[in-house]
Amino acid sequence: MNDWVVRLIDGGGYWGIALLMVLENVFPPIPSELIMGIGGIRVGQGRMAVLPLLVAGTLGTTIGNFFWYFLGYRLGWKRLRPFVERHGRWLTLRWRDIKWLRYMFRRHGEKIVFIFRFMPAFRTIISLPAGLFCMSPWRFALWTTGGALIWNVVLVGAGYYLGTNFKAIDDWLGPLANAAVGLMAIAYVWRLVRWKDQDRGA
């Protein structure tokens, strides 16, 4: 995958960066750390400029996140109820949990979207509940763009200073992402074991 990403960046330039960042948010296995980090390396080599690189990367990130936002928006949170009540045990969710999440998004949606842009494992998936709970698309775009811009500045800066030793980012971020996923898996199993099929909530 790394060679394919490098070829697309070198062949497509800023358009290649934008396309890869769209794909990274639609298909999360493509890592933004790699894409923007290579962009930072190219800046250090004089083959790219910082400002258009950040514009391309941030625009691609925002567009990619709108895929999941509109998917959630089209589905609508009320349509979830039959699914949650049927499969709630395996989701470890009750309908009252969905209502609580909706309440939190109504009160703190901007903060939630912004903060999750810096999470190694959950930057993209937060767009789905933002759409489900009908967060304003303008507010979603604003806070997604702001968070994505800061994250991309960090990645480009790391790529610029680390140069061809950019793999050091993966050595740090890789275990962090794995630890986050591992903790989520442990939490899921814990909730599943302790689940009681009662009080689904009105």
From TrEMBL:
Which domain of life does the protein's organism represent? Answer: Bacteria
* Cleavable signal peptide: none
Q: Which Pfam families match?
A: VTT_dom
Q: Where is the VTT domain?
A: 30-160
The record's listing under InterPro entries reads: DedA_domain (IPR051311), VTT_dom (IPR032816)
TM segment ranges:
12-30, 50-71, 112-133, 140-160, 172-190
Which keywords does the record carry? Cell membrane, Membrane, Transmembrane, Transmembrane helix
Q: Give the chief site where it resides.
A: membrane
Q: How does it sit in the membrane?
A: Multi-pass membrane protein
Q: Where in the cell is it found?
A: Cell membrane
Protein name, per record: Membrane protein DedA with SNARE-associated domain
Native source species:
Sphingobium lignivorans
